User: Fold this.
Amino acid sequence: MTTRRPGDRHVALGLIDEAVRSGATLAAACRALGPSARTVARWRAEAGEEDGRAGPRRAPVHRLTGAACRRIVETASSLEFRSAGGDATRPE
Assistant:
């Protein structure tokens, strides 16, 4: 299995476009490079879009309140814990 980097898709699209401009068919360029013609069409359709995932529909029930977050930051920033590691702020 090959590891893909985030820019690989853009590089592949550039190489496929260059091959097509040079006279190759889209199918032939895709066969030479690896992705199917359908994958290339999907990549092009997604090119300018944001991430389509919606995320959670509601906040988790155990989410910290603003007051709790502030208290945690104040405690961790206090003189007693400021230079201590993360283990020092855990309850025993």
Observations:
- Residues 8-21 form the longest helix (14 residues).
- The mean pLDDT is 83.
- The chain has four helices and no strands.
- The CA atoms of residues 30 and 39 lie 9 Å apart.
